[in-house]
TrEMBL record:
Pfam families: CoA_trans
Signal sequence, renumbered to the chain: none
Record bears the keyword Cell division: no
Source domain of life: Bacteria
PANTHER family in the record: KETOACID-COENZYME A TRANSFERASE (PTHR13707), SUCCINYL-COA:3-KETOACID COENZYME A TRANSFERASE SUBUNIT B-RELATED (PTHR13707:SF57)
Family: Belongs to the 3-oxoacid CoA-transferase subunit B family.
Keywords: Transferase
KW Transferase (keyword) present: yes
Protein name: 3-oxoacid CoA-transferase subunit B
C-alpha cells in the first residue's frame, strides 16, 4: 500500500465509528480526512477547541475568510446550524462530556491506553493544546494512525515520550487492523485487514496483542 492508500484506508474505517448526530472533534492531519468517508445518512457536527460547533469543509482557494479557522489555524467554513463561542465555553463543553467522539493521531500509544502525541523529538513543542482535555472529557477516544513510523513501532508496551493522557484511548485504527483497548485485557485485535497477516501485525507491534476469537475482516 502506498501512503495515500494507507491514509484513506484508516480514514475510511474510522468514519464507520461515527453515528448520525455525533458531536466530533478531529485532530490535525489524517483525522481531517474522515468526513469525506462518512456513510450515507450519517451527519456529524464537528467541534473545534477554539470555539465552534458545525465546521464545514475547507473553502475553495481564494474564498477563505480570515476569521474562520480551526484550532490548528486552517481555514474552514460553517454548515447550517453552526454556532461559535469563546474558548472557555468550548472547553466547558469538552470537560462537561458533551463531545461524543475525539479522533486523534498518535506518536506513541501503549498497552494501558496511554497516549503520547504532542512532543516530536528534535522539534520545538508549543504545547499539547486541547488534546489533554479532549482525551479526558470525550465519551469515545479513537486513534487514527499509521501502524509504524518509518518502520518503527508506534504501538508500544509503554510510551517513551511525555504523555498527553493516561488510560483514555478506547480504539486504535491503523492500516493493518482495528484494536480495542480493554481494561484488564490489554490490546485486542478485533478486525484484520486482509492485505496483512497476523504475523505482519505482530512483527510491527512492540506491545503484546491478543486476537479476538471472532476476529473479522477490517470493514471499509
Amino acid at each position: 500500500m502506498d501512503k495515500t492508500q494507507i491514509r484513506e484506508t484508516i480514514a475510511r474505517r474510522a468514519a464507520l465509528e461515527l453515528k448520525d448526530g455525533d458531536v466530533v472533534n478531529l485532530g490535525i492531519g489524517l483525522p481531517t480526512m474522515i468526513p469525506s468517508f462518512l456513510p450515507e445518512g450519517v451527519h456529524v457536527m464537528l467541534q473545534s477547541e477554539n470555539g465552534m460547533i458545525g465546521m464545514g469543509p475547507t473553502p475553495e482557494e481564494g474564498k477563505e475568510e480570515a476569521i474562520w479557522t480551526n484550532a490548528g489555524g486552517g481555514y474552514i467554513t460553517a454548515v447550517p446550524g453552526a454556532a461559535t463561542f469563546d474558548s472557555a465555553t468550548s472547553f466547558a463543553l469538552i470537560r462537561g462530556g458533551h463531545v461524543d467522539v475525539s479522533i486523534l493521531g498518535a506518536l506513541e500509544v501503549d498497552e494501558e491506553g496511554d497516549l503520547a502525541n504532542w512532543i516530536i523529538p528534535g522539534k520545538m513543542a508549543p504545547g499539547m493544546g486541547g488534546a489533554m482535555d479532549l482525551l479526558d472529557g470525550t465519551k469515545l477516544v479513537i486513534l487514527a494512525m499509521e501502524h509504524t513510523a518509518k518502520g518503527r513501532a508506534k504501538i508500544l508496551k509503554k510510551c517513551r515520550l511525555p504523555l498527553t493522557a493516561k488510560g483514555q484511548v478506547n480504539l486504535i485504527i491503523t492500516e493493518m487492523c482495528v484494536i480495542e483497548v480493554r481494561k484488564g485485557e490489554g490490546l485486542v485485535v478485533t478486525e484484520l485487514n486482509p492485505e496483512f497477516s497476523r504475523e505482519d501485525v505482530i512483527a510491527n507491534t512492540e506491545a503484546t496483542l491478543t486476537f479476538a476469537s471472532d476476529l473479522k475482516p477490517m470493514r471499509q
